[in-house]
Design a protein that fits this description.
The chain is α/β, with parallel strands linked by helices and 503 residues long. 36% of the residues lie in helices and 18% in strands. The strands form 7 sheets. A 5-stranded parallel beta sheet has the order 11-14-17-10-18. A 4-stranded mixed beta sheet has the order 1-2-4-3. Strands 5-8-9 form a 3-stranded parallel beta sheet. Strand 8, helix 5 and strand 9 form a beta-alpha-beta unit. The relative contact order is 0.10.
């Protein structure tokens, strides 16, 4: 007696179709799962047997062999439980085989026969060619985002058996989930006394430029960074689907509508490990924080407190927009195109630079400054000094520019970038950048001086030109020539960090 039921497994953020083959043959009672299952997948034999008993179903008292094809693909997690249970029922003849011939099953079984949600349902359903798919009731809205085939949500194995054998209809689709109004992000109007910091945040959002803010404690660095999501444009349909796939595969909660429509904002603690930041693992290769921030913002507060080895793992994703996690059996690629915003003190005590008397020794300052390598610093398009605001500005200054006004200017700059075939000016490269960022003679003289003095690299020159293009777009100058005003301001927004070191 043989039965085959379609299902899928997750590798990284991608789903892969799996055929669950069950053979019930003569021999001593046994339950064997083959086909490269991981530990959680092998434990399905105990969950399925207990679910049968709780549901009042007879488990076969003979040799049961489950093959998960293709056998060369590693199967992870408990998402194949429901498919294994249905395949056993079909092999027994308890349910008609034709009723499950073109229907896939995804879900974890509880010992009481309940069907539980699993990570990555959006990717799993997208990998299946079937006309219908049965998923946990809690994942039905997420599965319907694929927009292909019939999605049936179930809460228990009993509901599946009753629907497949025709004794009861499939459960009604769940009503659309309650979508609460999004909590408005903090407003830039709350920031007082930081005109340079507010301008840098606007330029960063408009052009997708990585931003590093350096200043003493209490100067408003975190306050500025937390207001950046409020001025970023909402995600398009393709970006929203990609971001939702990553969050679903990583087990993050999704909004009520199932789709992540706003740019994510991730702020890992400085004690985060390398794997938690870039992704990885053993059997379950999970996305990291930089992938969770894809199409959004990654904020690294107290960047000088992160281990140097962890910080240097950001260099390749910043350049390529992906993370490649290599293991012995397979390599997984995670999307990682994010806006990096970082904040740090000038020294361990925080009073270094022009703000006061530093209490750190020369060795402490040297070790602190070495935490950020030169290549990593070079990848920041914007490096600004944020000073403590004046007392008068804190107590009597008028409110700043509201986020809604700044967001409109950011949306205009992003629209110009979209006409050029990129999402933002930070992605301009090659011939397109040369055509859209032609340096005037005065601008050329400014960058030539920086290049000859060694204070600007070839990578830095390209980044300065991109920032200059964004500044021109914000000023409403859509021509291809950047004059010395744009380049001078772009260079001013790229502070030489070495000048902040205390002698």
């Amino acid at each position: 007696m043989l039965a085959t039921v379609p299902s899928a497994t997750l590798l990284g953020i991608d789903g892969h179709a799996v055929s669950v083959e069950v053979h019930i043959g003569r021999g001593l009672p046994a339950f064997t799962v083959v086909g490269l299952p991981d530990a959680a997948c092998r434990e399905a034999r105990d969950r399925v047997r207990a679910a049968f008993a709780s549901t009042g179903l007879d488990f076969p008292k003979s040799r049961v062999t489950v093959n998960l094809a293709p056998s060369g693909l590693r199967k992870v997690g408990a998402g194949l439980d429901l498919a294994i249970a249905v395949a056993v029922l079909a092999a027994q003849g308890r349910v008609p085989a034709h009723a499950v011939a073109d229907c896939a099953f995804i879900g974890e079984l509880g010992l009481d026969g309940g069907v539980r949600t699993v990570p990555g349902v959006l990717s799993l359903v997208g990998a299946l060619p079937c006309d219908a798919v049965v998923v946990p009731a809690g994942s039905a809205i997420e599965a319907s985002l694929v927009g292909r085939g019939v999605v049936r949500g179930v809460s228990s194995l009993r509901e599946v058996v009753a629907a497949v054998d025709g004794s009861e209809p499939w459960p009604a689709p769940p009503p659309p989930g309650y979508v609460a109004a999004p909590v408005p992000p903090p407003d830039l109007a709350d920031v007082r006394g930081q005109p340079l910091g507010q301008w840098a945040v606007e330029v960063s959002a408009a052009g997708g430029h990585h931003l590093l803010m350096i200043g003493p404690p209490g100067s408003g660095k975190t306050m500025l960074a937390s207001r950046l999501p409020g001025i970023l444009p909402p995600l398009g349909r393709e970006q929203a689907m990609e971001t939702t796939r990553i969050h679903s595969a990583g087990g993050l909660p999704l909004p009520g509508g199932g789709l992540v429509t706003h740019p994510p904002f991730r702020a890992p603690h400085h004690s985060a490990s390398m794997v938690s930041l870039v992704g990885g693992g053993t059997s379950w290769i999970r996305p990291g924080e930089i992938s969770f921030a894809h199409n959004g913002c990654l904020f690294m507060d107290e960047m000088g407190e992160f281990p140097p080895a962890v910080l240097d793992t950001l260099r390749q994703p910043i350049e390529e927009g992906v993370v490649r996690v290599a293991r012995a059996r397979h390599t997984v690629t995670f999307p990682a195109r994010f806006l990096l915003v970082a904040a740090m003190n000038p020294c361990p005590c925080g009073d270094g630079g022009p703000w006061g008397s530093c209490r750190c020794s020369e060795g402490e300052r040297s070790r602190y400054s070495r935490r950020l390598s030169g290549p990593l610093l070079d990848r920041f398009d914007l490096r600004v000094v944020v000073s403590r605001p004046d007392v008068g500005e804190l107590l009597g200054a008028p409110p700043g520019v509201p986020s809604a006004v700044v967001a409109a200017r950011v949306a205009g700059a992003r629209a110009l970038a979209a006409e050029r075939g990129v999402r933002c000016n930070a992605e301009l490269d090659g011939a397109i950048l040369d055509r859209l960022a032609v340096l005037s003679p005065g601008a050329r003289a400014l960058v030539e001086h920086r290049l000859r003095s060694g204070r600007l690299s070839a990578r830095g020159l390209a980044r300065v030109k991109r920032v200059g293009r964004t500044l021109a777009d914000l000023a409403g100058e859509a021509g291809g020539v950047l004059d010395e005003r744009h380049i001078a301001l772009a260079l001013d927004l790229r502070t030489d960090v070495a000048l902040l070191e205390v002698a």
